[in-house]
Write a structure and sequence with these properties.
Largest sheet: 5 strands, mixed, barrel
Distance between the termini: 39 Å
Structural class: alpha/beta
Order of helices and strands: HHEEEEEE
Strand order of the largest sheet: 1-2-3-6-4
Number of strands: 6
Radius of gyration: 17 Å
Number of helices: 2
Length: 159
């Protein structure tokens, strides 16, 4: 009986893990719109790997960008490797992308309502971040990452 219960628990766990991990094949065309296809030098569908603790916080009088870690699932424009890990600065990440733009970051947007680890996002990106944003950066990966930090111009939900 105990063996059957353990097997059943393992099946349930694997099923739940499958539901929360990124779906890599069926969502590649999701999140496509005229903006994400035309702005930025790069366009990717990527899985948000994690949101570090304390990386996203709401402060009405403080505008900042936080750096999030993604795995590239598909490259639609530009030269990035599928499967690579990239770091992307998202401006005022506690706001819906459609409401994130302001005087400091005018040309950003998208339909993503909130960031969730394990979900797919279709993004238009620029690089390097310091050519597009010169404000506060929350970088929980400082000293742990290599490569450039991309600036998210447009971010749509892709799952």
């Amino acid at each position: 009986m105990k063996s059957r219960l353990t097997s059943w628990s393992a099946i349930v766990f694997l099923g739940l893990f499958g539901v929360t991990s990124c779906e890599k094949s069926s969502a590649l065309s999701k999140g496509e719109d005229s903006q994400v296809r035309s702005v930025g030098k790069f366009e990717v569908t990527a899985c948000l790997i994690e949101i570090p603790e304390g990386a996203i916080f709401e402060r009405e009088l403080y505008d900042y960008a936080t750096i999030l870690k993604y795995e590239v699932i598909a490259v639609h424009r530009g030269t990035l490797a599928k499967g690579s890990i990239i770091y992307v600065a998202q401006y005022n990440p506690w706001k819906m992308r459609a409401e994130a733009a302001d005087n400091r970051a005018k040309n950003i947007g998208g339909n993503l309502r909130r960031f969730r680890a394990g979900h797919l996002e279709r993004m238009a990106l620029e690089v390097p971040v310091d050519e597009y944003f010169m404000g506060g950066l929350v970088d929980k990966y400082f000293g742990k990452r290599s490569g450039p930090v991309y600036w998210a111009v447009w971010t749509n939900a892709a799952d």
